[in-house]
Amino acid sequence: MALEPTDPLSVLNQAFRDAYAARRDAMLSSMGPVIAQIDDVLILRKGGQRFEAPSRTRRYHEYKVVTHVPLALYVLLAGRKDALDDDTRVRLTTLRGLITAASGSFAARGLPTEALARQHRMLDASLALVDRVLAANRVADEELAAFIHAQVPDLLKNAEDAARDQIETMHASVEAWRQQMFPAEREQLRAVVAASHMSRPGNVATQYFSVTLGDTWEGRFHEEEHSPGKRVLSSEATFDESAAFALLATHVLDARTSSGIFGEETRMARDLLADAAERILAEMFQKSPAPPGAGGP
């Protein structure tokens, strides 16, 4: 049960939180240049000023939206053994109209010839599947599997083109900013990336900043670790600019505080109760935790 808001300990704890927040804000103001990538925008804060630049173009979204079409059909239809229910029929009929409209819009988008043909292949195949399923009022597992497996090469090529668009767009924006920085500012540059939980491992922006800012880079399996001196962070479940920059300042403040108190920069990157919890659970259940990175059932 939580303490009452009027409890002297609650009041004391709030005073601590307020003091911490004030120190974190001061830390952010005194830091060197920091960049946040939030959706399609890069935001640079440097010397009390704020700058914006693109992190993606429309191409990124064009490729990703088409990629989602066969995936959506697979998710909607997978595992259905019986006749379609009314809700599924309505969804398929709606999707059919949306796919048709989207397909007709590509003539004016100016895609390269090969990329344009690829989009039409995926959309045409998706329309054909929808028509067959609606006509039969059901779908066989074998038919759905054959459909989605046939789309995989085009799906992956679209993913590659979307990643290339983001990387090249980010690089142009970041390099333009870096050219205007003093060498010391470039050495201090940090970045925070807004990413959903499922897209964190291998996130495009996190990989890019890890390479360009000299952090450890693990390619497509790259996943953030709270190591000392980390210059690239992921801001999970928040796409708010203030929250993203606050996370970066929190990381720096916690590292300095943790080093001063515990002699270990990363101690406050985990729950303050974590070490005690590990010992208690090991004693209670007579087992040891798996080594970091080791999978388990």
Summarize the structure in words:
- By secondary structure, this protein is of the alpha/beta class.
- The chain has two domains: 30-56 and 169-285, no CATH class; 58-165.
- It is 58% helix and 9% strand.
- The chain is built from nine helices and five strands.
- The protein has helices at residues 8-30, 58-77, 86-104, 113-136, 141-178, 183-188, 204-212, 241-262, 274-285, and strands spanning 34-38, 41-46, 49-54, 190-195, 232-236.
- Strands 3-2-1-4-5 form a five-stranded mixed sheet, sandwiched between helices.
- Strand 2 (41-46) and strand 3 (49-54) form a beta hairpin.
- It is extended.
- The two termini are 33 Å apart.
- The relative contact order is 0.12.
- The mean pLDDT is 85.
Which key phrases capture this entry?
5-stranded mixed sheet, alpha/beta, 297 residues
Count of beta strands? 5
End-to-end Cα distance, whole Å, is: 33 Å
Spatial order of the strands forming the largest sheet = 3-2-1-4-5
Overall body shape: extended
Radius of gyration: 25 Å
Q: What's the number of domains?
A: 2
Largest sheet: 5 strands, mixed
Q: What are the segments in which pLDDT stays under 50 over at least 5 consecutive residues?
A: none
Mean pLDDT: 85
- The percentage helix is 55-70%
List the total number of helices.
9
> What is the chain-wise order of helices and strands?
HEEEHHHHHEHEHH
Given the helix and strand composition, which structural class is it? Answer: alpha/beta
In what range is the share of β-strand residues?
5-15%
